[in-house]
Amino acid sequence: MITLTGTTIYLRALEPEDLEFVYAIENDESIWEVSNTQTPYSRFLIRQYLENAQQDIYEAKQLRLAICRKGSFEAIGLIDLFDFDPKNQRAGVGIVIKRSDDRNRGIGKEALQLLIDYAFSQLQLHQLYANISQENVASIKLFTTFGFQCIGVKKDWVRTGRQFTDEGIYQLIHQS
């Protein structure tokens, strides 16, 4: 089991007990825009996903970890590596903190630092990237804090209701 520990939080592998938490995240329409979700997920599908969550990142091409406060097993957020490409040594990064009152408290910052360190030191990745709506100021601030740079903007990329917004691609290249 992967466990990455920081000062106030730790990241751990998903467990069957996380079913209701993942179900709540995946079906929260208020975060569908940032998670690129368009339809609800059933408990059945999430249960199947959790049963396969033990797959190695090299097999699944993704890694989803629960963000937990130290001293607690309860997940407060999720952080992902997706589109894992070992040949080209890169992966995408996504993060979500479920409750709004847990946001802007340094939890995401600590989780992202742990994931970046893991990706570069353990997985030997050369680069990470994130797709971020240009209206998501908090995420842009979080990722740029770690040196992610906006390398391009996809115009009118994300539709929310009847409006289209731009999405930036942010990239962090590991300097070895």
TrEMBL record:
Molecular function terms from GO: acyltransferase activity, transferring groups other than amino-acyl groups
Record keywords, A-Z: Transferase
Signal peptide start and end residues: none
InterPro entries with a match to the protein in the record: Acyl_CoA_acyltransferase, GNAT_dom
Pfam families, A to Z: Acetyltransf_3
Gene3D superfamilies for this protein: 3.40.630.30
Alphabetized PANTHER family for the sequence: GNAT-FAMILY ACETYLTRANSFERASE (PTHR43415:SF3), SPERMIDINE N(1)-ACETYLTRANSFERASE (PTHR43415)
Protein name: GNAT family N-acetyltransferase
